C-alpha cells in the first residue's frame, strides 16, 4: 500500500506521468472539476454546505502556483440556479489567471426545474470566451472545448447523460487536421470506467457518454492524446486505444482535490492537489459513506486510486527530442 495522502491544503499526489501532451515552454493548467456551488443547500455526499469555501480555497491555491490557465469541465453550480451562478461569478473575480469552462449536466435546463437556467449561449458568453465549441491556443497546445451537455437545439433536458452533437463532431474533425498538440475538453466521459455491458446498466450509464463511438474514432484518427473531463466525481487516468482520459474529481465531494497538469518538453505530470484540511476531508468521507450504495462503491475506487497512484506512468521524453512523433 502506498503512503500517498492528501491530509493538508496543498498536499499533492502524482496521479500520472504522461508522454503527451508536450510543450517547448513549461506550462501549468489547473483542472477544477464539478464545484457544484450551492448557496442554499447542505449535506449529501457533495458536501453542498462547503462548496463556496472549497472553490475559494482552490482559487487561492491556483493563484499561488503560477498557473497559466484554469479549466472547469462542467457543473459549476448545484442545478443551474441563477443565484448560484451569481456566487460563482463573485468567486471567480478573485481568480488572477485566465479560465475557460464548459457546461455540465447540472448547469443547464432540466425538465422539472422550478427556475430558469442560463442558456447555452449565455453560458458560453460568461465562461467560454463567447461561443462553444471553442478552440484555444496556449503556445502550441491546442485546447478544443466541447459541450457534451447540449447540442444544436439546446440542452439535453430529459437526461443527465451527455453526448457530442453531430455539428460539434464535424467541427472537431475539421479543426484537428491542423492541430499539432491537441487536448479535448468536455464534461462527460467518452471512455467508460467499466467495460461493456456493465457500463450500460442503469447504475453506470449516466456517467458515460452516449453515442460515443464516432467521437472516440475521431480522437484516435487524429492522434488526440488527452481528453479532460469531469462528471464522475472521482479521479481517474486511463489509456484506451491511444487516447488518455483524465477525470478530475469533484471540488464538491471527496477526496476534496483538483488536478494540476505540469507540461514541458518531456511530457506531463498530472497531480491531485488537496484544497481541504484533514478535518474537511474526513467530513466529506463520512458523508460519502452515508450516501447511496453506488456512491460507496465510487468511494472505494477513489481510495484505491489515491493509494495506488500513479495510475498511469509513461517515461519522460529525452531532453531535446521532437515534441511530435
Folded structure, characterized:
There is one protein chain. This protein is of the alpha/beta class and 325 residues long. 26% of the residues lie in helices and 21% in strands. It has one domain: Purple Acid Phosphatase, chain A, domain 2 (4-Layer Sandwich), CATH 3.60.21. The strands form three sheets. A seven-stranded mixed β-sheet has the order 4-3-2-13-14-1-15, with no helix packed on it. A six-stranded mixed β-sheet has the order 5-6-9-10-12-11. A hairpin with a 2-residue loop joins strand 13 and strand 14 (267-274). Helix 1 packs parallel to helix 2. The longest helix is centred in the C-terminal third of the chain and has 16 residues, at 293-308. The mean pLDDT is 93. This is Metallophosphoesterase. GO terms for molecular function: hydrolase activity; metal ion binding.
Short summary:
This protein is 26% helix and 21% strand. Helix 1 (51-63) packs parallel to helix 2.
Any chance you could write out the topology, listing elements then pairs?
Blueprint (H helix, E strand, L loop, with lengths): L11 E7 L8 E5 L19 H13 L5 E4 L9 H11 L6 E3 L18 H8 L6 E5 L2 E5 L4 E2 L2 E2 L10 H10 L6 E4 L16 H4 L7 H9 L4 E4 L6 E5 L2 E5 L9 E8 L2 E8 L3 H12 L3 H16 L3 E2 L12
Parallel strand pairs: 1-15, 2-3, 3-4, 6-9, 9-10, 10-12
Antiparallel strand pairs: 1-14, 2-13, 5-6, 7-8, 11-12, 13-14
Helix pairs in contact: 1-2
- CATH class division: Alpha Beta
DSSP strand content: 15-25%
From the 3D structure, determine the CATH topology.
Purple Acid Phosphatase, chain A, domain 2
Helix content: 25-40%
Number of helices: 8
Taken in chain order, the helices and strands follow as: EEHEHEHEEEEHEHHEEEEEHHE
GO molecular function, one term: metal ion binding
InterPro entries: Calcineurin-like_PHP (IPR004843), CNP_phosphodiesterase-III (IPR050884), Metallo-depent_PP-like (IPR029052)
Keywords: Hydrolase, Iron, Metal-binding
Domain Calcineurin-like phosphoesterase: 28-234
Amino acid at each position: 500500500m502506498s503512503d500517498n495522502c492528501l491530509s493538508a491544503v496543498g498536499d499533492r499526489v502524482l496521479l500520472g506521468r504522461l508522454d503527451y501532451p508536450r510543450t517547448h515552454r513549461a506550462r501549468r493548467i489547473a483542472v477544477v472539476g464539478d464545484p457544484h456551488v450551492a448557496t442554499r443547500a447542505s449535506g449529501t455526499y457533495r458536501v453542498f454546505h462547503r462548496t463556496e469555501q472549497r472553490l475559494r480555497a482552490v482559487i487561492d491555491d491556483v493563484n499561488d502556483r503560477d498557473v497559466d490557465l484554469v479549466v472547469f469541465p462542467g457543473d459549476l453550480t448545484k442545478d443551474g440556479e441563477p443565484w448560484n451562478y451569481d456566487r460563482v461569478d463573485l468567486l471567480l473575480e478573485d481568480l488572477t489567471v485566465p479560465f475557460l469552462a464548459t457546461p455540465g449536466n447540472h448547469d443547464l435546463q432540466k425538465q422539472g426545474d422550478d427556475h430558469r437556467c442560463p442558456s447555452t449561449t449565455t453560458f458560453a458568453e460568461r465562461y467560454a470566451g463567447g461561443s462553444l465549441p471553442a478552440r484555444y491556443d496556449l503556445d502550441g497546445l491546442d485546447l478544443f472545448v466541447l459541450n457534451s451537455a447540449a447540442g444544436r437545439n439546446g440542452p439535453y433536458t430529459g437526461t443527465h447523460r451527455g453526448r457530442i452533437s453531430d455539428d460539434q463532431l464535424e467541427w472537431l474533425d475539421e479543426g484537428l487536421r491542423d492541430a499539432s498538440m491537441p487536448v479535448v475538453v468536455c464534461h462527460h466521459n467518452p471512455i467508460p470506467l467499466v467495460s461493456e455491458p456493465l457500463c450500460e446498466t442503469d447504475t453506470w450509464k449516466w456517467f458515460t457518454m452516449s453515442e460515443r463511438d464516432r467521437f472516440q474514432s475521431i480522437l484516435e484518427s487524429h492522434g488526440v492524446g488527452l481528453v479532460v473531463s469531469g462528471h464522475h466525481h472521482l479521479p481517474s487516468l486511463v489509456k484506451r486505444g491511444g487516447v488518455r482520459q483524465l477525470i478530475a474529481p469533484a471540488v464538491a465531494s471527496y477526496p476534496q482535490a483538483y488536478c494540476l497538469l505540469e507540461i514541458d518538453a518531456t511530457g506531463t505530470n498530472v497531480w491531485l492537489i488537496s484544497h481541504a484540511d484533514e478535518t474537511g476531508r474526513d467530513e466529506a468521507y463520512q458523508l460519502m459513506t452515508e450516501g447511496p450504495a453506488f456512491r460507496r462503491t465510487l468511494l472505494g475506487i477513489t481510495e484505491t486510486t489515491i493509494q495506488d497512484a500513479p495510475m498511469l506512468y509513461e517515461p519522460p521524453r529525452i531532453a531535446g527530442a521532437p515534441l511530435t512523433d
